Amino acid sequence: MSSASLRTAYGEALVELAKQNDKIVVMDADLAAATMTKTFKDAFPERFFDFGIAENNMVCAAAGFAHSDLIPFISTFAIFGAGRSFEMIRNSISYVNANVKLGFTHSGLSVGEDGGSHQTIEDIALMRVLPGMTIFVPCDAIEMKKAVFAAAEIDGPVYIRVARPVSDIITTEDTPFIPGKANIIKDGSDICLMATGLLVVEALKAAEELKAKGIDAAVVNYHTIKPFDTETTLEMAQKCGAVISIEEHSVIGGLGSAVAETIAGKVNAKFDMVGINDCFGQSGTPAELFDAYGLTAPHIVDKALKLLGK
């Protein structure tokens, strides 16, 4: 299995997109070498704008660009964008449905050694509560590029959650990427593992471990958190009778909440969540943190066995 950087894919996709669409501009907050928008800066210096450590100003300027019929992609670390600039995103972008794309990197625990102050575990919840906001959480580099191109086609605000580490490539160029439509990447009948982002690969590994134990697990990739695919969620919950949501985000307000809100009162299925349980992160390698916070395949398997009473 090959691997690639989602950040690198993000930067490369912006360049490819800008070659096809002269309305694309990119803005950053003094982090172009980390967010990988430097790739765009090198290719299109006249369409790149560095605002320095002034994220709030960047967000408001992006809204102005959008009102001038441009399509701005703005980037910074998720903690600074989704967190520090939430009010500006709410009022200057979401409230007026400005056509701005938010490509925020270094999200979740996988920021690693930067520690809890920089590990954004609430960004999906913050973006999800905003009316009109589309949310993409790509699982690999191929899906990241598709998310960038899909975002440009949407008339309105889009949040793209960009992970920091290199990750396994588990999709192909032919894998569908339809906003609002989850992908069933492994069918099954005993339990459904509903995953997003970097944890889709952990869900696939868990499904293989469960298969060895005689349990047929389905795996669904939610590359879009909003608009949420209620149809597939209800269908798979009904079919399997047991569901686990799996995400590198707080269990409050993210994928798990979306799944719970969807199936509650509609499907009689057992349900549990894998995610960050109402606590902050800490410093460590991504692998160490995923293990410590129960986000790896063995932890998913244990939770599945308990949910099924095995």
Descriptive overview:
- With 310 residues, the protein is α/β, with parallel strands linked by helices.
- Helix content is 40%, strand content 20%.
- It has 13 helices and 14 strands.
- The strands form three sheets. A seven-stranded mixed sheet has the order 3-2-4-5-7-6-12, with helices on both faces. The chain has a five-stranded mixed sheet with strand order 9-11-10-13-14, with helices on both faces.
- The chain is globular, with a radius of gyration of 19 Å.
- The mean pLDDT is 97.
Distance between the termini: 31 Å
Q: By helix and strand content, what is the structural category?
A: alpha/beta
Q: Could you give the count of β-strands?
A: 14
Judging from the principal axes of the Cα atoms, what is the shape? Answer: globular
Helix content: 40-55%
Which stretches are poorly predicted, pLDDT < 50 over at least 5 residues?
A: none
What is the averaged pLDDT score?
Answer: 97
Q: DSSP helix count?
A: 13
The neighbouring-strand order within the major sheet is 3-2-4-5-7-6-12
Strand content: 15-25%
Radius of gyration: 19 Å
What summary fits the major beta sheet?
7 strands, mixed
Secondary-structure element series: EHEHHEHEHHEHEHEEEEHEEHEHEHH
